[in-house]
Amino acid sequence: MQPTVTADLVARSADVERPLLSYRDEATGERVDLTAQQVGSWAARSASLLRDGCGLGPGSRVAVLLPPHWRTAAVLLGVWASGLAVSFRPRATAGLPVLEPGGDRPFDAVFVTPERQDDWLEDVPDATHRYLVGTGPGRLADVPLGWLDWAAEVLRYAEATPDHAAIHPSDPASADGTTYGQWGALAQEVATMLDLRAGDRLLVDAAEHEQPLKWLLAPLSAGASVVISANLDPAQLDTVVASERVTRVL
Question: What value does the mean pLDDT take over residues 205-225?
Fold first, then answer.
């Protein structure tokens, strides 16, 4: 993952007309297909929200408590395109706090689903700017005081190109100090491990793989596209693979 993280990763898509990122919910029938240009557009808006709306820049810290989803991809790519350090947290266990460097000060921004924000098992970190990110279509019907609906707020901002020249491979890309260069090398290693190549289409079971290194960074670094499937019925796996023209399953 090099300094031009958003532009470089989405530009690896071999076909600008085909979806780079697809999201399908097998329970509700919801489906979203995004081309490389559309992924880049949402990521650029997210970056503008963080930079212009929140006043964040290199050195700021962002917590992301979101499942595999197209909106999660937009948030994460926007965070990294802005040179921010992200803490991506899978579901917490029994409400135990997650300890990491800098844990004695609040995050600058936090992104969480309404379900996890209200779950007593979760340890949602404090932050100056707090956003709820829905995983269903449209905007949220109920947003608590002190929170904002990401889907509504992000549309207020332009698709401005972040200043990638201000980001360096040695800058921390995650709150534990792992750098952009190190995450890039890890993404390429995982892509090799999964035998992902340009033009591949990777199917991801959203319930089984929360780590974005596997479902987002690795396939994009290899030039592969991604199909995120929520509420995937194992009995329907072969049907989904065939209908989506999947070449690899995570």
Answer: 93
